[in-house]
Amino acid sequence: MKKIVIAVDNDPTSEKIALSGFQLGLQLKAEIALLSVVDLTMLITEGAVTPKEFADITINDYKKNQQMLVDTVFKEHKIWTFVEEGIPYEVILNVAKEWDADIIVLGTHGRTGFSHLIMGSVAEKVIRHSEIPVFIIPTKP
Predict the structure, then answer these.
(1) Measured distance CA(141)–CA(112) in Å, rounded
(2) What Å distances lie between residue 128 and 7, 49, 60, 79, 109, CA to CA?
(3) DSSP labels for 55-103?
């Protein structure tokens, strides 16, 4: 295993996911990439902000969150960072393939019932469609 993609969002659990992925990367002596995906499919704006402006704001927020993770978790280690737009599970799989990753690390919120039905599960979709191993970090308290 030479390359690991760690997928994070702006959830407070991102640090836990990043730290677990980083520890795995250190054990495997692998290159690490941090990936965040801006999901514009659920975007609804109320006139004051255009979808493009909202996307730009969200991308900036993800970049700030990634920088915070780089500063607190990865510190002096060189890592790659990606902030992409699209359907999260598709982008995660595409970036992993294009970057030639050997493993994908991501968290799961553990949604069940109606919220799982409506929101779906990015982790579940990545597991179903991935051609490489997927390491899931449970984030449910």
Answers:
(1) 14
(2) 16, 35, 30, 27, 17
(3) HHHHHHHHHHHHHHHIIIIITTS--EEEEEES-HHHHHHHHHHHTT-SE
Residue 110 has a pLDDT of 56
d(CA 116, CA 110): 8
Confidence of residue 121 (pLDDT cuts 50, 70, 90): confident
> Residue 13 carries which DSSP code?
T
What is the three-class DSSP state of 21? helix
Whether residue 108 contacts residue 77, with contact meaning beta carbons closer than 8 Å, is answered with no
In this structure, how many other beta carbons lie within 10 angstroms of the beta carbon of residue 25? 22
- Which residue is it, tokens 């959830």? 11
